[in-house]
Amino acid sequence: MVERNKRRLYVAFFRRKPTRNVPVKFHTALIVARKSGLWPSSDSDIVKKLYLYEAINRIDPSTSQDTWFYEVTPLAEIPERVQKLSGLMFVGKLPASLSDEELRNMLDNDVPRKKFVADDLSWRCHTWIWDALTLLVSRQLIPALPKSPEQSWRDAIQFMDDKDPPSSLSRIPCCDESGKALANGWI
Fold first, then answer.
1. Number of independent structural domains in the chain
2. DSSP-assigned letters across all residues of 7-64
3. Per-residue pLDDT at 19 exceeds 70
4. Which of 16, 28, 29, 156 has a 20 to 30 A CA-CA distance from 57?
5. Is residue 160 part of a domain?
6. What is the pLDDT of residue 17?
7. Are 92 and 9 spatial neighbours (Cβ–Cβ below 8 Å)?
8. Long-range contacts, stretch 114-122, CB < 8 angstroms, 24+ apart
9. In this predicted structure, what is the pLDDT of residue 185?
10. Which residues, at least 6 apart from 146, have a Cβ–Cβ distance to it below 8 Å?
């Protein structure tokens, strides 16, 4: 039996202020959504159905050191992020055999993170995205990307660069892994 309305995986781009040390103007995370059931809906209804998978850095209370953490959060619980969502890159459909819990555990346990070092800019949230996409492709859970995860991310950044902030979630710019606009939008 063919499953309809498969969960779709996107890389989400959230506006942030670039700094001298971190000149990237987007925080990136993964979003999982289902196509059906979202339209027509208000932004608040859409947000209730989206989950954000991300690596973020903050102070670890047990060590008092800046550390990268993996989190899964319903987007509705972080409204400040919704306002900063600038665009999406469609990655692929997830198989029905992969449960939400299995996806969470895989991303939490099998995608590397490291302690944050303020002067070491070699590992950022987008590095976690590249590693997560590599893992999902290697396990055949998403289709192979036409380019490396890093290059696909760079192509999507280039696509987002000239876009105005969207007025609503139904107008979020969306591209494919090559940075080409998707005619039908994102969901």
1. 1
2. EEEEEEEEE----SS----EEEEEEEEESTT-SS--HHHHHTT-EEEEEEEEEETTTT
3. yes
4. 156
5. yes
6. 87
7. yes
8. 114/68, 115/65, 115/66, 115/67, 115/68, 116/57, 116/65, 116/66, 116/67, 116/68, 117/66, 118/21, 118/66, 121/21, 121/22
9. 63
10. 152, 177, 178
The residue that leads in pLDDT, 2 or 89, is 89
Please tell me whether residue 182 adopts helix, strand or coil conformation.
Answer: coil
Residue 2 lies in a domain: no
Q: Which amino acid is at 59?
A: I
Residues 6+ apart with CB under 8 A from 148: 130
What tokens does 52 get?
């954000």
**Residue-number span of the structural domain to which 13 is assigned:** 7-175
Is 30 domain-assigned? yes
Cα distance between residue 152 and residue 49, in whole Å = 26
Using DSSP's 3-state secondary structure scheme, residue 135 falls into helix
% of the chain beyond a pLDDT of 70? 80
Q: Which residue has the tokens 């380019």?
A: 147
Tens digit of each residue's pLDDT (9 = 90 or more) over 42-93:
556 666 667 888 888 777 778 777 777 778 888 778 878 878 888 899 999 9
pTM (global) more than 0.70: yes
Q: What is the pLDDT of residue 38?
A: 47
Tokens of 51: 């989950």
Number of H helices, E strands in the chain: 5, 6
